[in-house]
Here is the input.
Amino acid sequence: MKPKIDLRAAMARVGEHQAADMTFRELVDAYCAVQFDGADLRLRKWTEAFGVLSAWSLTTRNISFAAEAMLQSGIYKASTVNRDTSTIGTVYKWAIRRHLAPAGFVSPTLGLMRFEETIRRVEISDREVAALLKGSFAFPDRRFAVYVRLLLESGGRRGEVRERRWKDVDLDARVITVMETKTDKPRQIFFSEETTALMRRVWPKRDPAALLFVGKTGQPVNYRVSWAKLTKAIGRPDLHQHDLRHHRAAELLRSGTSLAIAAQVLGHSSLILQRRYGHLESKTLKAATEQSWVKTAV
Here is the structure.
């Protein structure tokens, strides 16, 4: 017989969570201390503008006004402003999950309208993919080759790859589990047997608590300098690390994968994929329809 819980007594033992008295800067600093996703750099201008305010007093109007000012300055693109406000939203989600925010607090980013972005479509040829993979071995840090392969094969976000600890990795199943994601939904990213073999060689000993790509400061390496040198060497200095995620999305759809499945693989919104890559799925659907005509042709 299963034991029963006295829910009222259990709740009394837990007690009511008290909101943390903290400024917006303190909230961002706390988040960045445990999440290594580049938010510290992205939100630096925001903490300079709003850092002394209470984290819970920042309003949608405050953020909307600042976002509009960034866009009108001519310095920032709509995509950059959108990523900034999305990062602020991620910080507030994190705070709410950890009961740092007051009861009933709603993130001020929920009411924000996104600015229309110019869609960035980047084509990477098979030859360039091969050059990236081979060229990544030319760097003293052997982990860089693993990093490039994981981004390319999984379509994972940079933070999802860089922030992983060995407890998140199953080499036998060739899968990495990401518990905290941009969409707040745990997901898995997958990699090949070749990458598994390379990881076993690069890390003969693996501490479950250790970061795979830990740097000298104890935080994950961002590999910006190595990436810039690599892309310049192969003649594609325009490529961003994030473009490997776009490449995987395009390859999934070209292979006949539906937008719904591709969205799950990438941990992305189907609507965003439709806007960016819907033309690729349309080609696949058209080809499938035309193939069906062959069977019914008289």
